[in-house]
Amino acid sequence: MYTIAYLEEFTRKVFLKMGCSPEDAAAIADVFIAAELRGLPSHGMIRIKDYFQLWQAGRINVKPQVRIVHESPSTAVVDGDGAIGMVAATKSMHIAIEKAREAGTGWVSTMNSNHFGIAGYYSMLALPHDMIGICMTIANPLVAPTFSVSRMLGTNPIAVAVPAGKHPPFVADFSTTPLARGKLAVAAKKGEKVPLGYVQDADGVPSDDPDIITRGGSMVTLGGTREQGSHKGYCLSAIVDIFSAVLSGAGFGPFCPPSVAYLPLKEEKEGKGTGHFFGAMRIDAFQKPEEFKSKMDRWIETFRAASPARGQDRVLIPGDPERENEERIAREGVNVLAPVQKEMKEVADVMGLEFRMD
Amino acid sequence: MYTIAYLEEFTRKVFLKMGCSPEDAAAIADVFIAAELRGLPSHGMIRIKDYFQLWQAGRINVKPQVRIVHESPSTAVVDGDGAIGMVAATKSMHIAIEKAREAGTGWVSTMNSNHFGIAGYYSMLALPHDMIGICMTIANPLVAPTFSVSRMLGTNPIAVAVPAGKHPPFVADFSTTPLARGKLAVAAKKGEKVPLGYVQDADGVPSDDPDIITRGGSMVTLGGTREQGSHKGYCLSAIVDIFSAVLSGAGFGPFCPPSVAYLPLKEEKEGKGTGHFFGAMRIDAFQKPEEFKSKMDRWIETFRAASPARGQDRVLIPGDPERENEERIAREGVNVLAPVQKEMKEVADVMGLEFRMD
Lengths: 358, 358
Known about the structure:
The structure is a homodimer. Chain A is α+β, with helices and mostly antiparallel strands. Chain A has helices at residues 4-18, 22-37, 48-56, 85-103, 119-124, 181-190, 230-246, 289-304, 320-332, 338-351; strands at residues 67-72, 75-79, 105-113, 131-137, 158-162, 170-174, 199-200, 206-207, 218-219, 274-282.
């Protein structure tokens, strides 16, 4: 078990050693820690080695000049300058928030970035400003459109955070596939089968083998099959792709650069780096914040009071499971899997840092 | 078979007779016709009788003062004044477009409206202005959140229209349930079963009976089951609900007023009428429109060139099926089902209008 403080300091030091500024290293560590706290370890410590290897391969810029290259009162396109995703994304979301202060809403499409961790983190940056926060990103192309076997899209998550009054905020953060990539990888590592509806083989036939995507298979979009609405998941994923990558000038769809160094950069290029999309909507650009928050409280109470299906004890509000994880993990500490500890130790050794294995 | 011109004129006359202004009646008829043309008859002529009965019941205002009640440079809240949905929605989308002209983007949350037809129509109003159009709406509560049997949400569609260059635009328009309500109603009328995954019974057990929703059952959210990601569909539907109804002050979730006169208005009130959400993003608030459109052309070409799964001949771009319907139906005419013709004739007789049955 590790304390949050220990992992935060270690992560910060890793990125400081890579050459990041103290401010950037702290911003990066904050996102890593948020992932562990919210119970999403697939975006936490397990990624330290990935970023370390991208850095070794010269595929990330640790001294980026993240800057606005085009703007209007409510919009901006941001060039991430090859930054670590967390750096480009945190700055982009703050630009969206600043735009919203003046124009009521702010919308930022960011190119030339990299994998940024959990989308929910950036959407939640809007909450203390009494704003609704929105965040989307493209990712490694592993997902096939409906009727296709080509890996054209990422798991392309969408996050929306909405402030409430006396209740905790509404925070939706979900990939536009039935299952997140990380959970599939876990099943593959354990040698387990997965239910039909998550992946298909190279011919497009549903498969229960989570490892099929390394053998010409692909993930499918939310809905799973055409009959169950996978074309709607395809629409959603395509919207994330267009807002994040076409609007910004990043590498859309199959041209999204891989977020791990062991996958080669594509020869055929289209656009610059990874793309994200951020939005901030000031509540008082629509109505009095107190009124809105008290309505959100009633919304939350209404949905919490919905009748559970047989065999269920309660109906959840988006954000409940992650918040409950956060409370528990902040109290109990973080359990880092042994192989991940080993990777962290290897990184620490190369960089001349201390890392205590459990 | 009817010509578009014939149905357009008939629809316009029905709403003129109700007391709508010529401008409003034309706007309403345009949305009805768009639904028929795009191959979505569930939102076309079949709804004439519904609106007629709402009018008879005094539940729609045919002389509305649709107006902005709160605004910022990029946002507005619109009070639909009890208007027919098409009137409030068309005006709201034009406000979003005007806001975008000045601020780069425009976002409108509308309350006190009614059922507005197809969401895709309003998103497409942005296209001639070189803008991306967005539209969402809440609807009759028939859908249960994940783990619940309570009917808390509508089929809550999302539409996004994106201009391209030499190719037709990208137009996604989809409900956040596996199947649209209209298609379920058709199966029920024909006495057919539906695949598991669309509806559940009063205990939350998956059902193949499309009529189960009249006997305590409910529709489920996109994803179908928790294992296949229905919690993501629940998040999406909840986001539509919050943006359309909480931000505007409409009746959120279970408080959305029914869009048909045979369902009574709820006693417990929360908010005013039906809510929608509209967005317009000016392309040149992000980049040069010519560059963006040529990138969208490459996006469309890239996805069209994806390999079809075994047994499929092609991969579709969102908007393809509806556009192909439009081309065919504009040429061949509209086939209106006999029972719908009968309803239209009944409305015509009461209103003293001509209607020729096929």
